[in-house]
Amino acid sequence: MMQKQTDEILEMFRRNFPYVSREEQTLMDIIHHEGNVVFRRCEPKGRLIGCAIVNRNTILLLVVDREYRGQGIGDGLLKACEEAIGREGYKKVVLGVGFDYLMPGVPTSKRYAPSVHEHLDPRVDTVASDFFERRGYQHAWGACNCFDMKMLLEVFCQNDHQIGDTIGGILYRWATIDDMEGILRCADDACQYQDESFSRYYRCADLYISGQQERVLVAVKDGQIVGNLIVSAETEAKETGTVGCTCVATNETHQGIATRMVMIGTRYLKDIGLKKASLSYTYSGLDILYGASGYEITTYYFMGEKPLTGDRPR
Fold first, then answer.
1. Predicted confidence band at 159 (pLDDT cuts at 50, 70, 90)?
2. By three-state DSSP, how is residue 99 classified?
3. Contacts for 80-89 with beta carbons within 8 Å, 24 or more apart?
4. How far apart are CA 304 and CA 133, in angstroms?
5. How far apart are CA 220 and CA 144, in angstroms?
């Protein structure tokens, strides 16, 4: 794909989903991925007004500018995507997450399970999720929500502890490269019952260099790493920080370690002068964890899937 086309799609993504937090270079890399099949719809003067991106059996993006909706453009793009996926022999279409993701799923104001600490972005509605549900897609997570959370750091008030403090016999400090083995072991242990481990996100050596935008915060008990958290400053947007990939060793859970890491990491973001904090692509239950620090759910995601019918040999 030409750089101009990548830039056009990125611009379209930003104007239709301004509330989605995702690092700019990551978006560019995904949009430009060599495995993508891209469908474009343009107005007579050539301006991009609709776009869909397919990678393997995943629809990474399907979007139509607001003023052009209701004219069958979205239906046409969806049909093209499903046909492309079917031709490759896949039996199922997935919305959102494939080899990577622009968004975890389809943004929506609809919840699929009870939740707490909700303060939805007023720009989010059910239009897109309704579109897919009417066309046979179902929320694949059952009675479990997927969502983003955000907060204004001026309202953050959990300022009792900071990086370097020892609380209840556990030291909370920045990690060094020598900690990586213990961090990976902790992440694999914490995620042993999940489909994938967060450990892959902790393998980048740059995370362990002082002064970097992204750092790893660890909880250390009796010399052993029992918790990890990635804390990032302005990687997704100006004046915005993030926390994520929270891990606590299974034999150390229910002691408040995760909550304290989130609070300490968020305080750091506030202390360095950032205005907002966010976390993305999380799920039911963690609204309680992150909500304790002041984060609120701003966007839900419809994690849509749909089986394809017919015999299509692979």
1. confident
2. coil
3. 80/39, 80/52, 81/39, 81/52, 81/54, 82/306, 82/308, 84/37, 84/54, 85/54, 85/56, 85/57, 85/59, 85/308, 86/308, 86/310, 86/312, 87/312, 88/56, 88/57, 88/314, 89/312, 89/313, 89/314
4. 8
5. 32
pTM, two decimal places: 0.92
pLDDT in tens, 181-231: 999 999 999 998 777 788 999 999 999 999 899 999 999 999 999 999 999
Say how far apart CA 233 and CA 194 lie, in whole Å: 27
Local structure of 173: helix, strand or coil: strand
- Amino acid at the residue 151: M
pLDDT in tens, 76-114: 999 999 999 999 999 999 999 999 999 999 999 999 999
Residues 141 and 283 sit within 8 Å (Cβ to Cβ) = yes
Q: Give the rounded distance of the alpha carbon of 307 from its chain centre.
A: 24
Q: Which residues contact 242 (CB under 8 A, 6 or more apart)?
A: 21, 230, 231, 232, 235, 236, 277, 278, 279, 280
Q: First-to-last CA distance in the chain?
A: 26
Return d(Cα 133, Cα 44) in angstroms, integer: 31
